[in-house]
Amino acid sequence: MAVSLFLPSILYLTFNAKRRTITKKIILEELQMSAEKEKQKIQKLVEMGKRVHMLVREKQLADPELVALSGQLLKLDAEVNAHLGKKRPNKSDGICPQCKAAFEGAFCGGCGINIDEFFAKPMPVCIICEFVVDENDVFCGVCGVKREA
Ligand SMILES: [Zn+2]
Ligand SMILES: [Zn+2]
Questions:
Q1: Segment 76-115, tens digit of pLDDT
Q2: How many angstroms from the chain centroid is the CA of residue 49?
Q3: Ligand positioned closest to the Cα atom of 103
Q4: For ion ligand 2, residues whose CB falls within 5 Å
Q5: Most buried of 4, 10, 41, 57 (most Cβ within 10 A)?
Q6: For 104-145, how does the pLDDT look when each residue is reduced to its tens digit (9 = 90+)?
Q7: CA 142 to ligand 2 centroid distance, Å
């Protein structure tokens, strides 16, 4: 290659490389931005989904597709719960619903609650997933929905 052509070629290549780097940077920034927007969109969809799920559970929405999706969510909650070994406390289990100690008779030897009394009264359940919740819980331990005071 003649020297007279060499310099312009180098300049051209350098320019091109720089342009490619800038282009790459712009593409990367655009990707990051759309990924960020996508993330925000998903968060909004999740919020929306939670709200819709609640409205379906409260029977304020009757769209069949939404009802079906809501039912699938309930089923998933139930499956996760079963997997974690959480279930509605039952007197015949012989386990105190409060402190989880084994009990015999009418009172728990661990925490002293009246076992008969506990099972005689209706258990507070989550309005959304219908799992038993602790009266003082602000959020349902199963579906995570905020409980009304
Ligand atoms: Zn107990
Ligand atoms: Zn729940």
A1: 888 887 787 766 778 888 888 888 888 888 889 889 999 9
A2: 11
A3: 1
A4: 126, 128-129, 140, 142-143
A5: 57
A6: 888 898 899 999 888 888 888 887 777 777 778 888 877 777
A7: 5
Residue count (the chain): 149
Given a cut of 60, whether residue 36 has pLDDT beyond it is yes
Q: For the whole prediction, is pTM greater than 0.70? A: no
Q: Which amino acid is at 105?
A: G
Of 132, 127, 70, 100, residue with least CA distance to 141: 132
Please report, to the nearest 10 degrees, the dihedral formed by the alpha carbons of residues 7, 13, 18, 19 taken in order: 120
Given a contact cutoff of 8 angstroms between Cβ atoms, the answer to whether 108 and 96 are in contact is: yes
Residue corresponding to tokens 């199963």 = 142
Q: Which ligand is nearest to the CA of 127?
A: 2
How close is the Cα of 84 to the center of ligand 2, in Å? 15
